[in-house]
Amino acid sequence: MNKAERLNQELIFLSNKSIFHINDLVTEFQISKRTALRDITDLENMGLSFYTENGRYGGFHIVNRQLSP
After folding, report:
1. Sheet with 59-64, edge to edge strand ranges
2. How far apart are CA 54 and CA 69, in angstroms?
3. What's the rounded mean pLDDT across residues 13-38?
4. Distance set, CA 45 to CA 15, 41, 50, 59 (Å)
5. Most buried among 29, 35, 40, 53, using CB within 10 Å?
6. pTM here?
7. Which long-range contacts (CB under 8 A, 24 or more apart) does 60-68 make?
8. Angle between helices 33-45 and 22-29 (to 10 degrees)
9. Residues 55, 37, 65, 5: what is their CA dihedral angle, to the nearest 10 degrees?
10. Does residue 12 sit in helix, strand or coil?
11. CB neighbours of residue 45 within 10 Å
12. Residue 8 in this model has a pLDDT that exceeds 80
């Protein structure tokens, strides 16, 4: 699976989630933690909005589910 296909699949995977963790992407797509972090940055650059909550029950929260132009 190339990067564009993976990013598209990640968008579909995250579409029904309001919070997720790096390990969710790592296990679902069989990628490294560093690749998952790069993909999150790429998704942000595409217009998907996240905020990060640190701590035991933290994770990435999706703010805006629609990509901005």
Report:
1. 19-20, 59-64, 49-53
2. 29
3. 94
4. 17, 6, 11, 19
5. 40
6. 0.84
7. 60/19, 60/20, 60/21, 60/22, 61/18, 61/19, 62/14, 62/17, 62/18, 62/19, 62/20, 65/15
8. 110
9. -150
10. helix
11. 8
12. yes
